[in-house]
Structures are given as structure tokens and as C-alpha cells.
Amino acid sequence: MYNYIKGTIDYIGPEYIVVENGEIGYQIMTPNPFVFSSKVNEKVQIFVYHHVREDSAAFYGFETREQKALFTKLLNVTGIGPKGALAILASGQVEQVVQAIENEDESFLVKFPGVGKKTARQIVLDLKGKLENIIPDAFPNLFNDGHAKAVRAAGYSEALEEATLALKALGYSEKEVQRVAKKLLDEEMTTEQYIKKALQMMLR
Length: 204
Prior knowledge:
Blueprint: E1 4-12, E2 16-21, E3 24-29, E4 43-52, E5 57-62, H1 65-74, H2 82-91, H3 94-102, H4 106-109, H5 117-127, H6 146-154, H7 158-169, H8 174-183, H9 191-202
Parallel strand pairs: 3-5
Antiparallel strand pairs: 1-2, 1-4, 2-3, 4-5
């Protein structure tokens, strides 16, 4: 799986850019190719998603990891394909889109090309509460909710805090995560060890 490509921007078109790396030109679809206008012939790092189907394969590229992460989440929504997800990212900032989903602001979501009321509702149903892993590093104040308050109040270590976020991303409820995390407070582990131990406790 490709994570990113580093290379020189050789061409900018209406829908894609071409990044040259090792004498190979990679055609990469991006939300807004023209944001790279000032970087032609400059070396850049593009975070890529390789979308493969039976009849086609394409690279989709993004300036940040957060954009790529939201793109992949949107692909999991019924009725949204790569072009639809790309259109949403072209028209809105990651923070704005995530905030709208968390607030169930369907009136904001229907402003994006190809997103009607039914699709907006489906986005909320499929993604609300599942985007925290996108936000913490880039937008630490966006999720100032019960989970963040619980983490601060309990005095979790950084590794344990990361583990709780990972567990929520796996679908466990706030109540389940906090119950197990409190039992691990006195343990000194890595994030991966916390996650493994917590999963063992939840499956008992």
C-alpha cells in the first residue's frame, strides 16, 4: 500500500497533477490541483490513496494526512465514491466537514457537489463518532467532549490516551473504553500493549 510519494511536480491539469519520481510520472487526482500552481518543478510530498477496481486503478493525492484520512472514511459511506469524496474535500476544509458530521449539520453537507439530503444523512449515520483519529493532532480543540474531559480528569499517560482513541475508533463505546482504561492506570505500557491488554479485558 502506498502512503506518500515524494517528487517534482511536472504538470498541473484541471483534475490532476503529475509528480515525477525516479523518471516515472505519477498521475494523481487531487481535490484542487491548482493549489500546487506555485510549486511546479519543486519537490513535494503528496499523501496518496491507491484506488483499485476490476476495470481501473488510480492515485488520489492530498496535501495532508488529515485530508487523506477523511477521504478514506468518506469512501466507506454508502453512495459515495472517489469522485464524490474528492469533491467534498475540494469544497470544504477537513475541520469544517468533521464538525458538520459531528453536529449532524446536514444543511452544510448538502452544499457539496453531488450530496443530496439522503447522502448527507448517510454520511452522518456512517461517520459520526468515528472521526476522532483524524482530528487530535491537527485540531486538538475540536473534540472538547466527554472523552477529552475524561482523559484529562483521569490523568492518562500519552500512550494510554492514544490507546483509548484507538479503541473508540474500533467501535467501543465511551463507557466501555473508560471502564477498561481506569483499570490500566497503574500499568506502564506502550500504546500497542495498552490496546492489546484492553481488548483482552473486553473480550472476557
